[in-house]
Write a structure and sequence with these properties.
binds magnesium ion, 558 residues, binds thiamine diphosphate, alpha/beta, six-stranded parallel β-sheet, 22 helices
Length: 558
């Protein structure tokens, strides 16, 4: 048997797993790997200049492709830089294999520079975290890592790769990949119970979550929603296109503040969450968001989410695409013709209400487009009008997001990706990864100015790999959301009209020159009417473009 090196075996196992890209930032402990890549044409190393950017690019790629996103970062400080974005990837259930190089194991007892015990650092943010100690174990552990990341509920895993394991040579059995078949059909009796409850409901409401987009179940959920005439909301922290937004039953993104959630839920007699979180809120409240006695049905791929916070009448572990057709069949045998008629009437009511509120929103966006500086609604409205149908939106618009999910159509499961974990700096690099995964679709990132500055190095990666992403910077030269929330506290800042550490205006970040210095074409935009033509140029052109859109800085409610 010929001898194989650890670095060769690692790359061969990744190729067996279908990996095409490795996202990384190298250091001495990764040099064996970089050396192996020098003679590996099938794997493209995508370099980013800070580990936060590396992980968010890989996350965008993994979410948009459904494939394993492989990351290589540098020992303790590199892994440390990666953790904020690893948190976001974990919350988004993104299938990442994060690796870090480690020193030679015989050297570690002396605590060399950059050293720390790596698996415990990553452990809180991943499904599985381990170190490869021997060359013989390398294929088994890498295959296990890939299998685990891609098995529902998907999510990141971590492997530490000591340099001596990568440099070692030996007889290595490469093994083969395993995939856990994802189409798990929910428990039959539970599905019947859910159908019984939904068939009797007179005001059902559906919360559509990320599991719907991840399992490609738009058509299946549309069929159930139409059968019962239920309005559909995207879950509160909606990071995917979990329901086609142009469908007449789509009511927009769910509230994230407890009183508003309670108000919406008070209108329902049954809540059916399909892969939607119950409930991820952004602020504490004395008001319980869940009305007492509301019947809850929850279908999800993740048992942890079922009944996590609220008693759930019917909790079904299953894949939406595999389970919703069973539910539909069970419903059809139960729904009387009178109930069917009521469902049609509810659909018509929702359709009319939705059309009216959408008309009002569009009219407001157009009216505000006349102002300079423009409002965020005017900017979002102008983007919405200019986007082609096949566009993919990556959203980190923070306080500028008002109206976004209603105005911008996202009608297929890969048409929208948003920040899930709340760690900002995700959107700009994530858009690059999404573009890599979906090379034939125009990808447009809508990114707050403050958010962009956490990972603006990623612009260089977009230029380097000639990825035609469009970055729209929603630039209010402030951390506007923090000002809004501090204002609402009605404390010292409110009294003195003084907001500490929330203005980015002195000096202002010059995004055009920043982008140009990193190889990205850029334009500054001051009028809403200029957004459409600039977006058209950006999408038609080769390579990345940044549009620096100047927005109204005001933050106090009118
Ligand atoms: C990694 C990380 N650091 C800090 C924060 C706190 N934070 C939340 S929103 C925000 C400001 C966002 O500013 P910007 O992107 O310009 O959006 P705007 O509020 O102006 O719309 C900050 C600093 C965070 N969520 N994540
Ligand atoms: Mg801002």
């Amino acid at each position: 048997m010929p001898l194989t090196s650890g670095k060769r075996a690692f790359l061969d196992v990744l190729k067996q797993e279908g990996v095409e890209y490795m996202f990384g930032n190298p250091g001495t402990t990764e040099l064996p790997l970089m050396d192996g890549l020098a003679e590996e044409p099938a794997l493209t190393y995508v370099l980013a200049l800070q580990e936060a950017a590396v992980v968010a690019i890989a996350d965008g790629y993994a979410q948009a492709s459904g494939k394993l996103g492989v990351v290589s970062v540098h020992v303790a400080p590199g892994l440390g830089n990666a953790l904020g974005m690893l948190y976001d990837a974990q919350k988004a259930a993104s299938p990442l294999l994060v690796t870090a190089g480690q020193h030679d194991q015989t050297f570690n007892v002396t605590e060399p520079i950059l050293w720390a015990d790596l698996p415990p650092i990553a452990r809180p943010f991943v499904k599985w975290s381990a170190e490869v100690r021997r060359l013989e174990d390398l294929p088994r552990l890498v295959h296990r890592a890939a299998k685990t990341a891609l098995a529902p509920p998907t999510g990141p895993v971590f492997l530490s790769l000591p340099a001596d394991v990568l440099q070692a040579e030996g007889v290595v059995e490469l093994g083969a990949p395993t995939r856990v078949a994802p189409r798990v059909r929910g428990d039959r009796a539970a599905v019947e119970a859910a159908a019984e409850m939904l068939a009797r409901a007179s005001r059902p409401l559906i919360l559509a979550g990320d599991a719907v987009a991840q399992s490609d179940a738009h058509a299946e959920l549309v069929a159930v929603a139409e059968a019962i005439g239920a309005p559909v909301y995207a879950e509160g922290v909606a990071n995917t296109a979990s329901f086609p937004t142009s469908h007449p039953l789509f009511r927009g993104a769910f509230a994230r503040i407890a009183p508003a959630v309670r108000q919406i839920l008070s209108e329902a007699d049954v809540l059916f969450s399909v892969g939607g979180d119950l409930l991820t809120l952004s602020l504490p409240s004395d008001i319980d968001p869940m009305p007492h006695g509301l019947d809850v049905i929850h279908l999800d791929t993740d048992p942890w989410e079922l009944g996590k916070n609220y008693p759930t009448s019917v909790a079904i572990l299953g894949d939406p695409k595999a389970t919703l057709p069973d539910l539909l069949a069970a419903l059809e045998s139960r729904v009387t013709s009178a109930k069917r008629q009521q469902a049609r009437e509810r659909l018509e009511t929702v359709r009319v209400a939705r059309a009216r509120s959408l008309d009002e929103l569009r009219a407001r966006a157009r009216a505000e487009a006349q102002r300079t500086p423009m409002t965020s609604l005017a900017a979002i409205g102008a983007v919405a009008e200019a986007l082609p149908r096949e566009a993919v939106v990556v959203d980190e618009s923070i306080s500028s997001s008002g109206g976004l999910r209603n105005l911008i159509a996202s009608d297929d499961p890969q048409s929208f990706f948003g920040l899930r974990g709340g760690g900002i700096g995700w959107g700009l690099p994530a858009a690059i990864g999404v573009q890599l995964a979906l090379p034939d679709r125009p990808v447009v990132g809508l990114i707050g100015d403050g958010s962009a500055m956490y990972t603006c190095q990623a612009l260089w990666t977009a230029a380097r790999y000639r990825l035609g992403v469009t970055f729209v910077i929603l630039n209010n030269s402030s951390y506007r959301i923090l000002k809004q929330r501090t204002h609402a506290m009605k404390g010292h800042s409110y009294q003195a009209d003084h907001y500490v550490a929330m203005d980015l205006d002195n000096p202002r970040v010059d995004f055009v020159r920043l982008a140009e210095s990193l190889g990205v074409r850029a334009e500054r935009i001051e009028k809403a009417g200029d957004i459409g033509p600039a977006l058209g140029r950006a999408i038609a052109g080769q390579g990345p473009t940044l549009l620096d859109v100047e927005l109204d800085r005001s933050f106090k409610p009118a």
